[in-house]
Specification:
A mainly beta; B alpha+beta; C mainly alpha; A: Immunoglobulin-like; three-stranded antiparallel beta sheet; 9 strands; 0% helix; B: alpha+beta; 2 helices; 10 strands
C-alpha cells in the first residue's frame, strides 16, 4: 500500500530534456537500529528503482540503507516519443511497487 | 563552531537514527562506523581498481544540515550525454556511516543530462564522495564535507 | 455571542502575559530552518508530508464503517468543505463541553457518522486524514475561537505553557518566548508556532501530529509526557494556536 508521487510533465517537445521527480513512501529501515531490549530491527529497504520509457530502461538506481526514508529520486530523460513511463521499486521482503505516467511528445 | 564531546557524539547517533517505530520503543546503540579505509574498499568493489581522478563531477551537499536523516544531495557531471560520450553511472559513498555505500545511479545517453538528486542519511558530520564512470571507462570524483547537527528536544529520553 | 467574543478577545489582549512575543516579531519555524529544509517543504513534489496527504485523499473517498459512508458522502469536495477547518481547531465540542483537536474531531465523525472504530493516535490513517484536511487550510490565517466557552481552556493551556516542569524544571515559555532565535544543542530555538501540523519531522522520518511534538518537548525537559488525547495536551494546543493567531497555515510542513 505504498503511496507514490510522480512528477512528470504531461507534454514535451521532441528532444527536450525533462526532469522527473519521484517520491515513494517507505520506511527504509536501515538494519542498524535496535529496540530497547537490544534486538536488531531487521533491514527493510527498497533496493532498486527502474524507469522504463516505452519499454526501454532509461534510468536505474541501486539503493542502500543510507537513502533517506520515503526515497526521493530526481533524474532526467530525453522526450523521444509519446508513450508511457513506468516506474518500479523493488526491495526487501518482496516489496514491489509500480507507477506509470503518460507523456505526450510533439 | 562544532563542539564535540563524547556525550554529544552519543546524542547525535542516538538522535540521528532514533525515533521509534513504536514511538519510543527504539533506541540505537552506536553501531560500528565505517572508516576511510572501508570506504576505499567499498569504492574498489564498485568501480574496480582503476585510478579515480578528482574533477568533472560536482557533488552538491549543504555545508550544514539540522538533521542527518534527510540530507538533500545533487550530483552533476559535465557531459554531452551522447552515444559516444556519456556518463554510465554515478556512485555515492560516505566515510562514517555504518556502511559506506549510499546509492548507484545508472544513466546513459537517454538521460540527456547527467544530473541526479536524492536525499540521504548521514550518521555524523563527515565527508561524502561521488564517483562517476564515463563511457570511455574513466573515473572521476568529487568530495564534500558536511556538518550534521541535531535538535535539542528529541523523541527518546536517553 | 459575537459581542461576548469581542469583549473576551479584548480582555485577552489586555492581559497578554509579559514576555509573549509581540505580533510584529512572530515568525514561523519555517524561517528558522536551513535553506535546504525549506526547499523540501516548498516543493509539493518533494515534500514527504504530501505522501500522507495523497493517502488522505484516497481515504476521504473510501466507504467505511457499519454505515458504509465515506467522508466524501457528507462533505463532498474537500477543497470547499474543509477549507479553513484546520485553522479553527482545537474547537469547542458542545457534546462533551470542551475543545477537541482536529484528530479527535475526525474520530468523532468516524464513530458517530460512519459507525467505524476510532483510529489510533499517530496511526497512518489518522495522520493521512488529518494531513489531508489540514492541507485544505494552507495559506489561511490561524483563527481559533476564544469566547466564554473556550476561555477557561485557553487559560489552562497558557498555565501549562508557563509552568516549570520536569527534571530540567523548564517552562515552555523560557525557551520559546524568552530565548527563541538562540542556539540550543546545535539548532536554533523556534518560537513554537504550530502553523504546519501535522508535519514531516526529519527526526521522526515520518509525518506526525502536534501532540507527538509536544510529547517530545516534554521528554526533552525530562517531564512525564501527557497521553495522546489528554486534556492537558488539547488545552496546550488551543493556547499555542491562539498564541499563533493570524499566522499563515502551511501544513504539511517539514521541520528538523
Amino acid at each position: 500500500m505504498a503511496s507514490a508521487l510522480i512528477n512528470v510533465p504531461a507534454r514535451a517537445k521532441r528532444g527536450e530534456i525533462i526532469e522527473i521527480k519521484t517520491l515513494i513512501s517507505h520506511v527504509m529501515e536501515t538494519g542498524f537500529r535496535r529496540t530497547q531490549l537490544g534486538a536488531v530491527i531487521p533491514r527493510d529497504i527498497i533496493r532498486r528503482f527502474v524507469c522504463t520509457y516505452n519499454g526501454t530502461e532509461v534510468f536505474r538506481a541501486e539503493l542502500h540503507p543510507a537513502i533517506a526514508a520515503n526515497p526521493f529520486i530526481v533524474f532526467s530523460t530525453v522526450a523521444v516519443e509519446s508513450g508511457t513511463l513506468v516506474f518500479s521499486w523493488t526491495g526487501d521482503h518482496g516489496f514491489s511497487a509500480t507507477e506509470t505516467a503518460a507523456i505526450s511528445v510533439d | 563552531m562544532e563542539r564535540r564531546t563524547s556525550r554529544r557524539d552519543f546524542l547525535k547517533t542516538a538522535g540521528g537514527i532514533a525515533a521509534g517505530l513504536g514511538l519510543g520503543a527504539v533506541i540505537t546503540v552506536e553501531p560500528a562506523r565505517a572508516t576511510p579505509a572501508e570506504m576505499a574498499e567499498a569504492i574498489r568493489k564498485v568501480v574496480g581498481s582503476a585510478r579515480v581522478t578528482p574533477g568533472k563531477v560536482t557533488l552538491d551537499l549543504p555545508p550544514l544540515i539540522e538533521n542527518g536523516n534527510a540530507v538533500p544531495l545533487t550530483v552533476t557531471v559535465e557531459s554531452p550525454m551522447t552515444e559516444a560520450q556519456h556518463v554510465r553511472a554515478v556512485h555515492v559513498f560516505t566515510e562514517k556511516n555504518p556502511q559506506p555505500n549510499v546509492v548507484s545511479f545508472h544513466l546513459g545517453p537517454r538521460a540527456g543530462r547527467a544530473r541526479v538528486a536524492t536525499r540521504i542519511r548521514l550518521a555524523d558530520s563527515q565527508n561524502v564522495v561521488a564517483i562517476c564512470e564515463l563511457s570511455d571507462g574513466s573515473l572521476w570524483s568529487d568530495t564534500a564535507g558536511i556538518v550534521v547537527t541535531l535538535a535539542a528536544c528529541l523523541e527518546d529520553g536517553i | 455571542m459575537r459581542f461576548v467574543g469581542a469583549v473576551a478577545a479584548l480582555a485577552i489582549a489586555a492581559s497578554a502575559v509579559a514576555g509573549e512575543i509581540p505580533r510584529a516579531d512572530r515568525r514561523s519555524g519555517y524561517e528558522f530552518m536551513g535553506r535546504e529544509t525549506r526547499a523540501m517543504q516548498d516543493d509539493d513534489t518533494a515534500n514527504p508530508g504530501m505522501l500522507w496527504v495523497l493517502e488522505g485523499g484516497t481515504l476521504w473517498e473510501k466507504k467505511t464503517g457499519a454505515a458504509g459512508r465515506a467522508c466524501a458522502d457528507c462533505h463532498g469536495d474537500p477543497r470547499a468543505s474543509m477549507k479553513g477547518v484546520a485553522a479553527r481547531y482545537p474547537a469547542f465540542d458542545a457534546a462533551i463541553g470542551r475543545p477537541i483537536s482536529l484528530e479527535q474531531r475526525i474520530n468523532r465523525c468516524r464513530i458517530d457518522r460512519q459507525q467505524a472504530p476510532a483510529l489510533a493516535y499517530e496511526s497512518r490513517e489518522l495522520l493521512a486524514l488529518t494531513a489531508f484536511v489540514a492541507r485544505q487550510s494552507r495559506g489561511l490565517p490561524i483563527d481559533v475561537t476564544i469566547d466564554a466557552r473556550t476561555h477557561p481552556f485557553l487559560d489552562a493551556g497558557r498555565a501549562t505553557f508557563h509552568r516549570r516542569q520536569g527534571q530540567l524544571n523548564l517552562a515552555c515559555a523560557q525557551c520559546h518566548d524568552d530565548n527563541w532565535g538562540r542556539q540550543l544543542a546545535g539548532n536554533v530555538i523556534p518560537q513554537a508556532h504550530p502553523t504546519g501540523y501535522p508535519l514531516y519531522r526529519l527526526e521522526w522520518q515520518s509525518l506526525g501530529s502536534l501532540q507527538r511534538r509536544l510529547r517530545n518537548c516534554l521528554v526533552g525537559i525530562r517531564a512525564e509526557p501527557y497521553d495522546y488525547g489528554a486534556n492537558e495536551l488539547v488545552d496546550l494546543e488551543l493556547y499555542l494556536l491562539w498564541r499563533a493567531r493570524g499566522m499563515t497555515m502551511d501544513a504539511p510542513a517539514v521541520r528538523p
